[in-house]
Design a protein that fits this description.
single chain, alpha/beta, N-(1-d-carboxylethyl)-l-norvaline Dehydrogenase, domain 2, 8-stranded mixed sheet, 10 helices, 21% strand, 6PGD_dom2, oxidoreductase, 2-dehydropantoate 2-reductase activity, 6-PGluconate_DH-like_C_sf, Ketopantoate_reductase
Amino acid sequence: MPDIHIIGKGAIGLLYGYYLQPHYAVTLCLRAQLPHSHFNYWRNDECTAFAPKIEDIESQDKIECVIIPTKAFSVLDAFNAIKPRLSKHAVIILSHNGMGSIELIAPLLSGQQQLFFLTTTQAAYKRSQQDVIHTGHGMSNLGAVNAAAKANQAKVFKNLSVAIPDLHLVDNIEQLLWQKLIINVAINPLSAINQVKNGQLTQPKYASQVLHLVHEAYQLALVQGVKIELHKVLYLVYKVMRDTADNFSSMNRDIAAGQPSEIEAICGYIVQLGQQYNLATPYNMDMLKQINHYANAKKSAPDGTLLH
């Protein structure tokens, strides 16, 4: 396995970097220099320092393998920044919430460049610019997107699985992406708007909204040819709520901090697809509007609080 480049310094990207560094040379590609030379990985109040190489994202060095774990809305910009550096057979691994990036990135690749998607239920957040807190272990899934990736997927999986725990190679990444999208549709916006932890969404007062949000996404998955069962995905949604009961969703944290969220790649993706297939998605549309309203209100609130 060649050196592995990771775009940005987000929590999940740093978590991948921490796992990969004992096995590979890891480089973080950033747009600005850091005031520190290492990061701190925290788990159960125990700290381990790790120090990946840092380089400018516009460096001229070739990239053989890159993970892009940025927010969904930043994926295209991040890819375009490193596109001139990609080798002829480069491995490109996308990893984020929501959908829509594959359609943007796949047409930009040469025939021999390999596109993968990495989903994960690992949970982490950054307590500071230097400290990443690992709040929950979970399963990760790697899936090949294009033909070049499928031809080399066994080798890529073997190399990554020695470093990333509980990693699985899947044949149908589209189904897993839809499954995760439906989970995100149900959890992220509601937890952000109501500023609650994931586990609180199991309360009966949220049941109707959860059901309608899931059902709208489920209908569109069927239209897309994804084989999925409503009762199974609903069970999974509530299982994730319970398994991550003490965690805040990423959208919850983004809205609380006044940062851009991935709502356009989650509920926005459902709304856009619904318009394409002439299927009504009023509940996802409502979440899209509310999150955008809250984001704008957060920016304009003089005391930094959410406006209702």
